Amino acid sequence: xxxxxxxxxxxxxxxxxxxxxxxxxxxxxxxxxxxxxxxxxxxxxxxxxxxxxxxxxxxxxxxxxxxxxxxxxxxxxxxxxxxxxxxxxxxxxxxxxxxxxxxxxxxxxxxxxxxxxxxxxxxxxxxxxxxxxxxxxxxxxxxxxxxxxxxxxxxxxxxxxxxxxxxxxxxxxxxxxxxxxxxxxxxxxxxxxxxxxxxxxxxxxxxxxxxxxxxxxxxxxxxxxxxxxxxxxxxxxxxxxxxxxxxxxxxxxxxxxxxxxxxxxxxxxxxxxxxxxxxxxxxxxxxxxxxxxxxxxxxxxxxxxxxxxxxxxxxxxxxxxxxxxxxxxxxxxxxxxxxxxxxxxxxxxxxxxxxxxxxxxxxxxxxxxx
Length: 370
Hints:
The chain is an alpha/beta fold. It is about 45% helix and about 15% strand. It has helices at about 5-10, 35-50, 75-80, 100-115, 130-135, 150-155, 165-175, 210-220, 235-245, 270-285, 295-300, 305-315, 325-340, 350-365, and strands spanning about 20-25, 55-60, 90-95, 120-125, 205, 225, 255-265, 320, 340-345. The two termini are about 35 Å apart.
């Protein structure tokens, strides 16, 4: 195993945290706020995360969703890299089927050149949006010729779909190692190895079901599971990842993080008010009415139907919220139940101040550096 690559992947628990703590920033846009304000909050959160000892911060690719401003992860990551010095930054994730692998290799090679040794490339296989928007993104079937002869592809042939082929092509571009005679042998992703010795971002696979879990295990890659919106599948997916894992040049043992929705406030009632805004936003998204994140006042006044109330109760059952001590207890329990190697916390709320305050309170609860 490449020791340095493994060190880039594994985090270190700080303070009294049971595992490394990280941040997933959805760049939320609340009612009455703007994308500019949301992106400024992202800088505040990244700087807080670096100052307090969170291990990494990721942003996710979403499209045609008014309540988020993260359609271009690479652009946001470049902005955050310019405002931080040590914090690991990455995509959680880039949706590989939406992009040509060469484009992703160029974008993340550029990020690696800007912030050497600080960039993660997390990849998902969903479009990150609805079907009509996916079509507008010009997603098409690919010939997958770029993956021919890849050892990575050989490991994953029995998994079906074309995602493994796209992943193999992307990996070849990042490593600049297409074999002689290959149609892409004279094509180079720049910045990249063709310009001289350089590092490259470690690849993570993301998922909310078993497919990516198994693929990550077969390839010996780190795995990130979306517990924050697919909690019922968390333990089965992590078990499948660990059972499928084959040591690789990247990792000699499995390494899995899970995304966790958690929000701490100074009082229980305030935490409940804040997380209800995210729940109402999800109700609207699930019923084809996506919009800006509602205010706490709007969420409290909303007349939920019985079916919507059932959804909200189920949704909030997977959101760890309350005072700092209550959130710490919930995170500790989740880490113990799942055996996750890292917890990546996302704080869904209307306003930036509530989200920043939540991360401060969680850091205080675990005695992270101040």
